[in-house]
Amino acid sequence: MVDASPVNETSVKFTVRAQDPDLAQKVCTAVAHTYLSRAKDEVERSLGNLQSTKQALVKLQAEVAKSLERNREALRNMEASGTGGVERELALARLSEYVVREESLLLDLANRIQEIDLKLGGAVRPEILETSPPLSASSRGSKAYAGAGAIFGFFLGVFLALAVEIRRYLGA
Question: What global pTM score does this model have?
Answer without folding.
Answer: 0.60
